[in-house]
Amino acid sequence: MKTTSYHINLKAYSIAVTSLRKQIEAKRKLELRTKCLNRRFLIEEERNDLTKLMEEINELRNTLINT
Question: How far apart are CA 45 and CA 65, in angstroms?
């Protein structure tokens, strides 16, 4: 079978589409990873805030008990 310009263009198009799909998938995975890391950071920040609040409440409670 003779390779024609049409077949070469078709193969080039196929390679380009496959490459684009891989790029899109990689970008999607990166976005999910970033979103997950941001969520973890926000959860950790909230946990730290709650810990500080609990410490303040305990200090106030102890102050009230001791007065």
Answer: 30
